[in-house]
Amino acid sequence: MTLDLMTYYRHMLRIRHFEEACLSGVASGEIHGELHTAIGQEAIAAGMVGILRDDDALVSTHRNHGHGIAKGVPLEPMLAEIFEKETGLCGGFGGHMHLFDPDRLFSTTGIVGATLPVALGHAYAAFLDGSDAVAVAVSGDGGVNTGGFHESLNLAGALKLPLVVLVENNDWAISVVSSEVSAVGSAERAPAYAAWGTRVDGTDPAAVAVAFAEAVARARRGEGPAIVEATAQRFRGHYEGDPDLYRTPELKEAMAAKDPLVIARRELEAQGIGTDHLDDLVAESQAQIDAILARVRAAEQPDPSRAHDHVFTGGVA
Ligand SMILES: Cc1ncc(C[n+]2csc(CCOP(=O)(O)OP(=O)(O)O)c2C)c(N)n1
Fold first, then answer.
1. Which of 51, 89, 204, 244 has minimal Cβ neighbours within 10 Å of its Cβ?
2. Nearest CA among 218, 201, 221, 219 for reference residue 209
């Protein structure tokens, strides 16, 4: 199932503008702690749009905003959570690495590799319930070398559980080149888990959609787990504040040619879509995010006296 390129372009613009709003919150000091953006990787999340149902679980990483948007998490409570406001998804208690939307079965974790065991639990629950829901775990190319990745895919393969692993391969795990510390690529590991595996160009949303939809459809039919590896580039440092000295200026310049928004826009222009129309789309998307950002900025932070809420159960009598 693919959408038209114009629709993908709009989804990618929304994700880019959302993350740029987050960057403004870091610059102003409103957002504390490490913020990770997926600027440059938007086509992967855009390619996921419309493929999952509300009862399918999606468990994302520290680089999670686009996946939440793709799962249909409302933008305002998500941005409010990142800005630590009480109108946020978790009342401002979680922040950017702890986005939870139970209604859409969307969750995140900052523990590398931990998305798979959580998604495996969702997949096992679907199996026990006799439902055809699936569970998706996102991983980076660094996360694939954790024990949890191997253990979860092994069990999913053994029990034919509906676990889809979407690997966002941006070549780097912080400052480590993943291919230098990996015996084989991620997609190539699939046969070891009786899984279906494929690698796609993660700057092409339609290519991601075709592969992801196939993985989800197979899992839904009870055909077991899948690994979809999508390649793209992370344009910014690992987190905001990372000096990013491990990547040379030449490499960064070469990466810029892989901007999925620039690629999509060029293709749309080649299809005869006018520059004015495309500029209008950009302005429309920016205005939507600006309006949300203004409301988020005006919202209250949680009352500090509630700092211990949700930390303790209240004990056992
Ligand atoms: C278990 C664990 N070990 C180490 C870290 C610190 N850490 C945070 S992100 C990261 C690298 C992740 O790289 P990758 O999986 O490729 O994802 P990317 O950041 O490229 O999206 C590391 C080592 C962590 N959060 N959790």
1. 244
2. 201
Domains of the chain and any CATH numbers? 5-296 (3.40.50.970)
pLDDT tens for each residue of 91-112: 999 999 999 999 999 999 999 9
List CB contacts of 246: < 8 A, sequence separation 6 or more. Answer: 172, 175
Token look-up 């069990």 returns 155
Question: Residue of the nearest CA to atom 2 in ligand 1?
Answer: 112
Any atom of ligand 1 within 6 Å of the Cβ of 229 = no
Residue 31's alpha-carbon distances to 64, 81, 89, 295, in angstroms, are 16, 10, 15, 15
CA distances from 214 to 65, 139, 218, 225, 229 (A): 23, 18, 6, 11, 13
Q: Are 119 and 137 in contact (CB under 8 A)?
A: yes
Distance of CA 193 to the CA centre of its chain: 24
pTM of the prediction?
Answer: 0.97
Question: Does ligand 1 come within 6 angstroms of the Cβ of 237?
Answer: no
DSSP H or E segment with residue 249:
helix 249-256
